[in-house]
């Protein structure tokens, strides 16, 4: 997500505590039981047969996606407690069942890894196990699961930092690849999330140097996955332009690795911006906005026309007590995306009220949906 959610997390913390109690998230299982369950989980998909397919054909099987935001990407707390450190409750299989039942067949799992790595870049085993457990919630539902690296503070796309960044990026993805090498084509790896010059004036625009370093990240990521074992040489994977930006300049600057027909491009686009993302912007939406049509025209010209498939890895609109307008916007957005064969993943950060970016749809503590009208509109549009 574009504006990092410290304020939203603080505002939702008290609510999150009560939600955890209501959800019965406390676990009284013995350590031995937990260890046994973790071992079982790590051996669950050790050798799934893969249907080798091109990225274009794989993306054609996707309808619409849902992202588990502000959860495994949270960077507070310690160890596996980080999952709930931004106010959301512990993720359950029931939650992902509800997502699947609502018509979403893509489950994007954002994960922050840097706070769970030691000085040798080794990922904490308990964290890796928990990530795998949640991945399996989607895989066992027959969903496509996108696993990424999310709020990573250790990489910054500058020339003088590139070598060290790439060293850590390779070390991380080597471990992820090793753990998930037996999974079939339903598991998709996404190398980095919104790589950008964090905190600098040109953070979301970038410059020639930062765009080139992002290309180096993509190259290192692809090479690491392809050099790993199991099904990974044939796995469909995702690369992103600078900041996952939908600007024409940044999309055109992305160097998609050649000779690999299993590469997908990830773009993030909350449009129209004033309505969809700017919390101080308008709550009005009346007809299809030109920014939506421009987005997909550009995507088509830069990528699709060259046989490179695209997924909108993040989209959505914040709650401004304007459900009817949000319904119309999501219908326009997804119907346009459908024309171009571009699946889109709604960013659900679990919050629906307060001063932050309130993209929440799923009521994670009680079940059901905060805005069933929006979920119905999503399902109807992608299935029409």
Automatic annotation (TrEMBL):
Top enzyme class: hydrolase
Gene this protein is translated from: celB
InterPro entries for this protein: GH, Glyco_hydro_5, Glyco_hydro_5_CS, Glycosyl_hydrolase_5
Enzyme Commission code(s) on record: 3.2.1.4
Signal peptide positions on this chain: 1-22
Protein name: Cellulase (Glycoside Hydrolase Family 5 protein )
Pfam family, one: Cellulase
UniProt record similarity statement: Belongs to the glycosyl hydrolase 5 (cellulase A) family.
Originating species: Ruminococcus bicirculans
């Amino acid at each position: 997500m574009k504006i990092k959610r410290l304020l939203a997390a603080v505002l939702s913390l008290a609510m999150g505590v009560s939600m955890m109690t209501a959800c019965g998230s406390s676990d009284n299982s013995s350590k031995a039981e937990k260890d046994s369950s973790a071992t079982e989980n790590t051996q669950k998909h050790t050798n799934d047969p893969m249907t080798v397919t091109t990225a274009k054909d794989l993306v054609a099987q996707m309808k619409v996606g849902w992202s588990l935001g502000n959860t495994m990407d949270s960077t507070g707390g310690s160890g596996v407690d980080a999952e709930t450190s931004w106010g959301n409750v512990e993720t359950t299989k029931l939650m992902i069942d509800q997502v699947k039942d609502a018509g979403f067949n893509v489950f994007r799992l954002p994960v922050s890894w840097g706070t769970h790595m030691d000085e040798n870049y080794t990922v904490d085993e308990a964290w890796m196990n928990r990530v795998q457990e949640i991945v399996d919630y989607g895989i066992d539902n027959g969903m496509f699961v996108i696993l990424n690296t999310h709020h990573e503070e250790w990489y910054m796309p500058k020339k003088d930092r590139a070598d060290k960044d790439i060293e850590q990026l390779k070390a991380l993805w080597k471990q992820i690849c090793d753990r998930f090498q037996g999974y079939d084509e339903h598991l998709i790896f996404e190398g980095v999330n919104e790589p950008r010059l964090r905190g600098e004036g040109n953070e979301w625009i970038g410059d020639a140097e930062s765009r080139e370093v992002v290309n180096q990240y993509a190259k290192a990521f692809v090479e690491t996955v392809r050099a790993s074992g199991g099904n990974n040489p044939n796995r469909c994977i995702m690369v992103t332009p600078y900041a996952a930006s939908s600007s024409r300049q940044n999309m055109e600057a992305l160097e998609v690795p050649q000779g690999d027909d299993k590469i997908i491009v990830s773009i993030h686009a909350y449009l129209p911006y004033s309505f969809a993302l700017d919390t101080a912007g308008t709550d009005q939406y009346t007809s299809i906005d030109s920014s939506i049509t421009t987005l997909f025209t550009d995507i088509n010209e830069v990528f699709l026309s060259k046989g490179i498939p695209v997924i909108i890895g993040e989209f959505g609109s914040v709650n401004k007590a304007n459900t009817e307008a949000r319904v119309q916007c999501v219908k326009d957005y997804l119907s346009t995306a459908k024309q171009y064969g571009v699946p889109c993943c709604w960013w659900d950060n679990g919050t629906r009220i307060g001063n932050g970016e309130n993209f929440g749809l799923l009521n994670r503590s009680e079940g059901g949906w905060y805005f069933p009208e929006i979920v119905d509109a999503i399902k109807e549009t992608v299935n029409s």
